[in-house]
Amino acid sequence: MPPSFDRRALSPFDPLSRNRRAHLARLTILVGLVVLTGGFFRLQVVQHAAHQAQSTSNQVRSIPLAAPRGFMYDRDGEIIAENLPAYSVSLMPSSDRDLRADMESLRPILDLDDMDIVELERQYELAPGQPILLDDALDYRTLSLLEEKRNEIPGILLQPKPRRVYPHGRATAHLTGYVAQISEKELGEREGSGYTAGDILGKTGLESMYEADLRGEKGAEYVEVDALGRRIRPWPEQPFQAPSRGNDLHLTVDLDLQRRAAEIFPADRRGAVVAIDPRNGDVLLLYSSPSYDPNVFSGRLTSDDWRRLIDDPSTPLLDRAIQARYAPGSVFKLATAAMAMMLGVVEPDEFEDVPCRGGYQFGSRWFGCHAVHGWAALQDAIITSCDTYFYQVGLKLGLEEITRFGRAWQFDQKTGIDLPNEAAGLFPESVEWYDETYGEGRWGSGVVLNLAIGQGEIALTPLKLAQFVAAVVNGGELLRPRLRQTDAPPEIAASLGLSRDQFEILRTSMSGVVNDWRGTAYLRAHYTPLRYTIGGKSGTTEHNAGKPHGWFVAVGPMEDPQIVVAVVVEEGGSGSAQSPIAIDLIQTYLDDRNGIAPAESPPPPPIALSESARSTD
Amino acid sequence: MRRAATEQNWYLLTLAVALALGGIALLYSASQTATGTDAAYWQFQLIWLFVALVVYAFIGVVPMRWIEKITRPAYVLSLLMLVAVLAFPAISGARSWIRFGAVGFQPSEFAKIATILVVAQWVARLKTPPHGLTALVVPAFLVGIPAALTLLQPDLGTAIVYVLLLAALCFWAGTPPVVVLLLLSPLVSVLLTFSLSLWSLYVLALGGLLFLLRPPRSTWIYVGATNLLMGIVALPLWNQLAGYQKERLLIFLQPESDPRGAGWNVIQSKVAIGSGGWFGKGFLEGTQKRLAFLPERHTDFIFSVLGEELGFLGVLVAFTLFGMLLLEGVRIAERNPDPYASTVAFGLVALMASHLAINTAMTVGMMPITGLPLPFVSKGGSFLVVCFAAVALWRKIWIERMPARR
Do A48 and B129 touch (CB under 8 A)? Predict the structure, then answer.
């Protein structure tokens, strides 16, 4: 190209200079593109897995599906606890602002109060992103109202959630316990075991004891959500994982017996009744009065309902069969007699030194008896429940021996039944215990007289007393009571260690209490005809306020004991007054075992509770 | 020169139309979400593509000399529009739209072209290449005025584009690259103002560079004064930035600091692109896009839809197309000996390249979020027209590479 005469010839735009710069520009563009490509390569190839995972978790949310709990069956396979199909409504808000607004618009439908809303907001804070359970016992009307609201409130989640139902709620309440939503505290204690807010947890009774077996395995619903947390559709790769039902629980109790107990137990009275099979420790019946309906906990328990249960002076939630302790009264004479025979301090056929003149003079103190029994041997004294006789036995045994036996026979321990929160018996562990409790020399030697007749420093749960009486009639084995059916041999907690003959004496005496005309329970027990040979022992517990508590522990049939029933009725008057309850239950049970139809069973026994306070035995 | 009106650079036009059609395909995908499909996006873009092609054809019949003649009025007009736009109501925090009823456009897109033209005119009048910084005062002002007006909108991304344009145009005018770097040095000061120690190191390094180069005293004064000034006033200047801009810059530095808030866009974009892998999830199959995790997926983050659905290979194809387009632009600038035409062609390359780099780097978190559209691809009519106007200018400059002897 010839030198140009163009005025721009000296400008930077001569071909050579342009070419150099164009090369530099091309290089810059290529380097820039390579750097950018490198950035995409790092993200899309090197870090692909992490971003893929993030994309999936962005997109998929798992909504837990409640597992149906295992059923509970009685010994005959009748249902004690089951599940019914129900619907729950939860909220999956995308933000806490949405939560507020959603709850406001749901408030009238679900009848939420301010307290509920505060509580639900707390739940959201605990587990944001997780659905918050609003109600898990929807009726069909509410369900359809919510169904209509679905478009307006996209976070609404309607899910099947099996509802725990106890068909005979009140009759089995203290046995089954109840289930309810897991609390924040319980959630903290069970961290790592798969519980989330809104889950159902066994709170008391067998539901709590066998929670791990009953709860089953949660399933999940996998849904695709958009950036606002709205559910779009089921996740195509795995829309659903079915929950699996918990293990069923087969119980030793007899539902008919439970229902009978609930039916005949004086409705306005507090107390308890338990029955165990003395041959193996199977618990046949466990009922506490007053009872409550455990079904109310399965739904959304309103604070009013809860307050009513908690504030009820008769404490219906207390399981009196294993948590309440009462002085055993005269029932304990069986234990005193057993101790005395074992130590050989009494001869069963001989009278004590002093006959019963309606009481016993000990030092300067007069210890009363409820009647004048005159001269009596061991069996007579048990049959008539003569205190005077047992005062003298107590003195012969001495406090040291009684406390030693008490420990050996585990009166101060729990029975070990498979229920939570059982109370141990109260029993002085030694003579020193009195020194420690009352101060040295500040207690009289008369305590041993009281202890010998089951009064004073002794208090046992109905189950504990039933366990002891079962040992008396089964040849001396203190069996651990059990509610879950098992093929395993019974677990022996201790042996009483008496001879056959000595047990025979006690059994004969118990038979006499019911069948001998002098027996304390003779009249009451024979209001209705007895179809089996039944024995028992009454007990009347004096206490500081009101009428005495009445005990009756019964066994049947005496020739082959299959059931021991212990009844206690608070302020029920004399123990013998409770004998119809125990006897009716034994006959109900034995009828059932012998194939006699329930229709042939008699109507509820006459139970007199207006007995005068002085009538003790 | 009758042939000029019909002769085409088919290579260039094919690339541009391919990119625009690819963009419409991506818009078609981006508008299909789980909550519904909005066909309006891609249909409007298709209409705008026709408009853009009409504009392309129209520019085709105008000789380059005429364009050179209207350069100044166009520049002044665009400045007036940039002032006028400040009187219009803000849309999502920025006053960047001039609107008359339903019709609206962003003057800053046209102002970029006008600025390229006016600087090219300045370059054309140079007798010798500008060797020192003092020679660059005029273009610095020519670019600085629209850049400052743009910052007032505020639109940080476009302002950055202006700075890159200035650098590219000065470079094409023959300024030594080192001088261009010195010209830009105060900007680095602004960015380093957050850390006194980093800034001190930078100033020391700059001093060392100057010592080695032994430039005239004026350069010392410019570099020293501007860098110190920037170091001092940058913090108050920072406080002048709109809240969302500060947020965007901070989030760029650490997106995970606020995953639910402003960092959301970057994180979700990275997740979308990263989960695409080698081959992508398939066209229309992007879950991040479909479930609306991806923000601004029609405009600023359209490239993330590409990355998610077509994978790394799709990204490679896109970069290849853009690379071919930019290199063709460089070739056109190189071949046309006319300083004005050549500079315009190169300026357009710089404009497209800076948009491409800033937009795509943003989607992978290599740049702060600035809201710059991706040329030819992002939704937006006025920018698509600008892009095709650029192609039309390139074509014209290509055809006129052998100027008729006058």
Answer: no
Which residue(s) pair with A564 in the sheet?
A: A276, A555
Annotate A493-551 with DSSP letters as a single string: EEE----HHHHHHHHHHHHHHHHSTTSTTHHHHTSS--SS--EEEEEEE--SSSSPEEE
Q: Cα–Cα distances in Å, from B162 out to A84, B148, B267?
A: 71, 9, 28
The mean per-residue pLDDT over the stretch A515-522 comes to: 89
Choose the mutation target among A55, A59, A94 for the interface with B, i.e. most B CBs under 10 Å. Answer: A55
Contact A32 B268 (CB under 8 A): no
CB contact (8 A) between residue B312 and residue A40 = yes
Whether the CB-CB separation of A551 and A575 falls below 8 Å is answered with: yes
What CA–CA distance (Å, rounded) separates B43 from A54? 33
Query: What is the rounded distance in angstroms from the CA atom of residue B170 to the CA atom of residue A465?
Result: 105
Confidence band for A65, pLDDT divided at 50, 70 and 90: confident
For residue B393, being part of any structural domain is answered with: yes
How many C-beta neighbours within 10 Å does residue A132 have?
25
Facing B361 at nearest CB: one of A36, A48, A59? A36
**More confident position, B155 or A606:** B155
Q: Which two three-digit tokens encode residue A414? A: 């729990």
Q: Choosing among B291, B308, B331, which should be mutated to test the A contact, i.e. which has the most A CBs within 10 A? A: B291
B31 located within any domain: yes
Helix (H, G, I), strand (E, B) or coil at A272: strand
- Looking at residue B180, the DSSP 8-state letter turns out to be H
Contacts of A288 (CB under 8 A, 6+ apart): A173, A174, A271, A272, A318, A319, A320, A321, A324
Closest CA to A51 of B289, B312, B271: B271
Spell out the domains of chain A, with CATH numbers in brackets: 61-85+162-251 (3.90.1310.10), 86-160 (3.30.1390.10), 255-304+320-600 (3.40.710.10)
Q: Indicate the pLDDT class of residue A83, thresholds 50, 70 and 90.
A: very high
Query: Which residues are CB-contacts of B53 (< 8 A; sequence separation ≥ 6)?
Result: B17, B388
- Choosing among A5, A7, A30, A36, which should be mutated to test the B contact, i.e. which has the most B CBs within 10 A? A36
Statement: residue A242 has pLDDT above 90: no
Report the gap between the CA of A194 and the closest CA in chain B (Å): 27
Chain B residues within an 8 Å CB radius of A24? 171, 177
- A36–B337 CB contact, under 8 Å: no
d(CA A64, CA A159): 10
In a domain, B405, yes or no: no
Exposure string (b/e) for A283-301, b if CB count within 10 Å is 16 or more?
Answer: bbbbbbbbbbebbbbbbbe
Contacts of B334 in chain A (CB under 8 A): 18-19, 22
pLDDT in the model for residue B155: 77
Cis peptide upstream of residue B259 (ω within 30 degrees of 0):
no
The pTM assigned to this predicted structure is 0.66
Terminal CA-CA length for chain B? 12
| Nearest residue of chain A to residue B277 (CA atoms) | A44
Q: Which domain holds residue B298?
A: 2-399
Structural domain count, chain B = 1
DSSP A349: T
Q: Is residue B406 part of a domain?
A: no
At CB < 8 Å, which residues of chain A contact B?
A: 8, 10-13, 15, 17-19, 21-22, 24-26, 29-30, 32-33, 36-37, 39-45, 47-48, 50-52, 54-56, 58-59, 224-228, 230, 232-233
For residues A41 and A22, what is the distance between their CA atoms, to the nearest angstrom? 28
Q: Specify the length of chain B in residues.
A: 406
CA–CA min distance A288, chain B (Å):
55
